[in-house]
Design a protein that fits this description.
By secondary structure, the protein is of the alpha+beta class. The chain has one domain. It has a nine-stranded antiparallel beta sheet. A two-stranded antiparallel sheet has the order 6-11. The longest helix has 22 residues. The protein is globular.
Length: 272
Amino acid sequence: MAADLAHGAFSDPAPHRVVLPNSPLVRVLAQVRFPQLATMRQEAIPRTLDAVINDLSDGFPLMERSQEVQFSFGPAGFSSDQAGQLWELKSLAGDWTVSIGATSVAMHTGSYADLNDFRTRFEVVLESLAKHVRPPRYDRIGVRFTNRVENPELLANLASLIRPEMIGGGAAVAGRSDVVVQHTLHESLYVLGEDILHARWGSLPAGAVVDPSLPGAAVDSWFLDLDSFRQASGAFSPSDISEEIRKLGKTAYRFFRWAVTDQFLAAHGASS
C-alpha cells in the first residue's frame, strides 16, 4: 500500500483510499473566510444569523455563543487575542460543530467517516450562509486533518510505522533504551500552485499541545497535523467551495499516505 507513493508525497498516481476502522483522526476541520460585511457587524450578527440557525436546526439543534480566539506562537510561547463572537451550532451528540463568526464559517468533527460525507454536510451549511448572509466571495478555504497515536505499543515501534524521513530528532536515540525523547516537533510548508500544505508532526508528552484549540492527549503521543488551504479569492459558490475542499483534502491525504507505512495502516485496521 505504501509503495504507491515511493517517489514522493505529491507524485502521481494518487493513492487509493484505505479505510481505517481504528482511525487515528481526532479532528477534521474545514473553514471558509470571507470579507467583513455590513450585515455581519457585531451588533447585526444575531439578526442576520437567525435564518441560518433555523435552517440548520435539524442537524445542529444546540447553540452556544463564545469568543473567537486567535492564537499565535512566539519566543514566549502561545499568546491569544479575542477576535469577536462566535455562534457555535452543535449536533445533539456533540460530535459535529458549526462555528460562524463575522468573517468565517467552519465545521469540525471527531466522527469523520470520509471526505464526501464531510463535504456534503458542510455544503448544506454553506448553502444556508450563501442564501441568508450572501458573502460576495471567499478569501481563504482550508481543510485540516489532525491525527494522533496514543497506544504505547505503537509508540514503542514508531520507526516501523512512519517513513524514516518523518522520524527527525527521534532517530538520534536509536539503540539507546536509556535515552528518552521528551518531545520532537517538525514543520514543513509546501506550495503547490495556489494551494498550500502546512504539515506538522512530532512526539509530545502527556498533556502537551501544539494547537491550543484541541485538548492534549492524557498520555504520550505522536501527531500528524495537515492543514491544506488556498489563500485566494473566488465567488462564494457552495458547490465550487466544496470542490476546492475535495482537492485540498486529496493533497493532505497524499501526504498522509506517503508519511505512514503499511504497518501503520494495518495497526489501524486496514485490510490487506
